[in-house]
């Protein structure tokens, strides 16, 4: 076994990095760690996870073998606020419900069409 810090980042092909970054800043409280004209790296709040947004002209919003990315809520009662933040930031909701009583989820689309799951467990 190779020792690592675990999965530390995910890169998405996006049409406009600054527009996509603003969605993740507004909805999930991400902060910009570094950027140039074609790439923005965001950090998730209080963590060392990185979401890299890379300008591309093809493949934007295409899931390929990865079906979605997820943001785990700290409190189940925050699902309503999460859904509202997604909608206010220009995203859409595909599905919403509970995996079981007290374990809410929402599947949303970001501005490029990527599926984002917000859930509590």
**What is the radius of gyration computed over CA atoms, rounded to a whole number of angstroms?**
14 Å
Shape: globular
Quantity of strands, as a count: 8
CATH secondary-structure class: Alpha Beta
Identify low-pLDDT runs: none
What is the CA–CA distance across the termini?
Answer: 28 Å
Task: Provide the spatial order of strands within the biggest beta sheet.
Answer: 1-4-3-2
Name the helicity range: 10-25%
Write down the oligomeric state: single chain
What's the architecture in CATH terms? Answer: Roll
Q: What's the total helix number? A: 2
Could you state the order of secondary-structure elements as H and E? EHEEEEHEEE
On the 0-100 scale, what is the average pLDDT? 93
How would you describe this structure to a colleague?
- The protein has a four-stranded mixed sheet with strand order 1-4-3-2, with helices on one face. The protein has a four-stranded mixed sheet with strand order 5-8-7-6, with helices on one face.
- The protein is α/β, with parallel strands linked by helices.
- Strand 7 and strand 8 form a beta hairpin.
- The chain has one domain: 2,3-Dihydroxybiphenyl 1,2-Dioxygenase, domain 1 (Roll).
- The chain contains two helices and eight strands; from the N terminus they run E-H-E-E-E-E-H-E-E-E.
- The relative contact order is 0.20.
């Amino acid at each position: 076994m190779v020792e690592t810090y675990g999965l530390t980042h995910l890169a998405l092909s996006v049409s406009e990095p600054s527009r996509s970054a603003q969605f993740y800043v507004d909805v999930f409280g991400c902060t910009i760690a570094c950027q140039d004209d074609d790439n923005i790296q965001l950090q998730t709040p209080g963590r060392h996870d990185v979401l890299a947004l890379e300008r591309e002209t093809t493949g934007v919003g295409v899931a390929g073998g990865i079906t979605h990315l997820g943001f785990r809520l700290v409190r189940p009662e925050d699902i309503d606020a999460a859904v509202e933040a997604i909608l206010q930031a220009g995203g859409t909701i595909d599905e919403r419900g509970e995996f079981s009583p007290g374990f809410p989820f929402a599947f949303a689309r970001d501005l490029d069409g990527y599926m984002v799951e917000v859930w509590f467990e």
